[in-house]
Amino acid sequence: MSGKIDGKKIFKQYGITLVLLALCILFTILNPVFFTLRNIMNVMRQMSMIGIASVGGMFVIIQGGIDLSEGAVVSFVNVVCAWLMMSAGMSPELAILISLIVSAAIGYLNGVLVTMAKMPPLIVTLAVQGGLYGISYIITNSHSIAGFPDSFRFIGQGYIGFLPVPVVLMVLVLAIGWFVLNKTYFGRYIYAIGGNDDVARLSGIRVNRIRRLVYMLGGLFAGVSGVIFLSRLMSGQANTGAGFEMDVLTALVLGGVSINGGSGKIFNAVMGVAIIGVLNNGLVLVNVNQHVQEVIKGVVLIAAVAFDCLSKSKSSGNEA
């Protein structure tokens, strides 16, 4: 029995947790306000929207696709839900229900274009992104929509006990995501399709149908984030979700969800979401310029993707 410690194995298992801990220590040193209870709750509230959308995004990536329309869906739902309440006179409950149905339909449309039109997911979701932003600006005429019932604040600003409502919703969605991926045939099919869709098809899995449902779930969860954003800001704006999809993608890749598909775990994805939440909050607290923040997050994404690709390449080399 060897007592030698395998540093690479330890880093692979706990590296992301160590990175999160290091970031927390760094930002606490740079600004002690970071580690106050009030700010920690704020970080959790901020990361909840990314966490919820990341479950849908994780499903999409594991089955071998990508969804760059999540930020646009957030903006579109933000605007549509606001318009339904203020211009159509609907109750918040009905407006939310219709908005989520619309977001799921957008996701399903992505899946249809990918599976039936045989279009690359990158192109499909990028085109849908542009279309949704355009429609959002047309609906709002580049202005914000406000004046919602005060009860609508509860979703984005309320508390259940000591926990913010968005955090409770994130925990519920993450639990659902874990259950689906680990305890259902649907989850196994998602992994199988991402691993090798030809083998999955030969095994009797209805690959195209699963893919359409996965994209639909991606749209639905992004829609939930859009509703929370609207409730938190109490203002419907066409640019609310700008850059949101990159935060989700970075969080997932940081969390070990392979950009090549076929692998990924909810717990590690949560760690990735937490890192993005800490980065977003900490960089603001230490007064880092917004444009510099985007550069930093871009570098983080490139590094995470590079690490994923190198690990995949090394693994393939060892198998050969």
Automatic annotation (TrEMBL):
GO CC aspect terms: plasma membrane
A molecular function (GO) term: transmembrane transporter activity
Compartment(s): Cell membrane
Keyword list, A-Z: Cell membrane, Membrane, Transmembrane, Transmembrane helix
Primary residence: membrane
Segments crossing the lipid bilayer: 14-35, 47-66, 94-114, 121-139, 159-181, 213-234, 266-286
Name recorded for this polypeptide: Ribose transport system permease rbsC
